[in-house]
Amino acid sequence: MPAGTPFDWTDVDVAVPRRSNRLTGVGMAGFRHRVPGRVDIAMVAHPSVTLLIDLADGDGIVHDGPGRRERGSVVVGLLPGDLRTTGHGTGECLQIRLEPDVAAAVLGASSELTGTVAALADVWGRDAPRVEDRLRAAPSWDERFAIAADVLGRRLGARPPVDPEVAHAWRRTLADRGRVRVGRLADEVGWSRKRLWSRFRSQLGITPKHAARLVRCDHAAHLLAAGHAAVDVATRCGYADQSHLHREVKTFTGFTPTAVASAPWLAIDDVAWPASSPARHPAEAATLR
């Protein structure tokens, strides 16, 4: 998620796929920075594995993470730490969010990506440059989304999915906004807590508890950006108190709740991710727009 910086989103055109190009557990959005100038965006944790496909000409986008710098198209794993994306010019980028269970099937290395940023070619293999060339040559975002959906769909069909029990646990965590307990998830899938913990972590690269914290923090960030008071957000999201909220938001975003509330980065979230944004009260959505 782009975080609060001087970057002006009014200079960005945003495109989203038609419903026919949407895949379960996959969100896509296209961004075109139409005003020449410097792009400098802080990225923070999101409950997805993210593909940033650089479609710009020239030097391309630079991604600076902890102890690592990548240029061009990258895969951002869960919990990537402090990450900044910079560039110059007008550039275009296709951003694809993969829910962790889908990422495991598409990439085959979801668990190894946690806490990292890697070049797309290192993860995707030799097909990466060909896919980038096809996307760059496509004359419209609709065609780019169709190409991406086709490529992702074929990769999904070529690899074994994660255990259905793990997929169920992830979907329930997402649906309950991180407030479902691990013991309850284990009961629902008929596994012991220990087995669910082990299989979830080995296949998705994160423990069920950490996944719940990440999802809950994402929901809290949206509420803060929608203008809700931190004390109310803490209550609604199940935090012990406002201090607990502060610590969790700081851990996962690198920002204080006050900074998150005043940042412009979530203002386009409903626009860029209409199929994947959490369901919100109408008043919240109105505030974001």
From TrEMBL:
The keyword Protease does not apply. Keywords: DNA-binding, Transcription, Transcription regulation. Residues 164-263 form the HTH araC/xylS-type domain. SUPFAM superfamilies: Homeodomain-like. It comes from the Bacteria. This is Helix-turn-helix domain-containing protein.
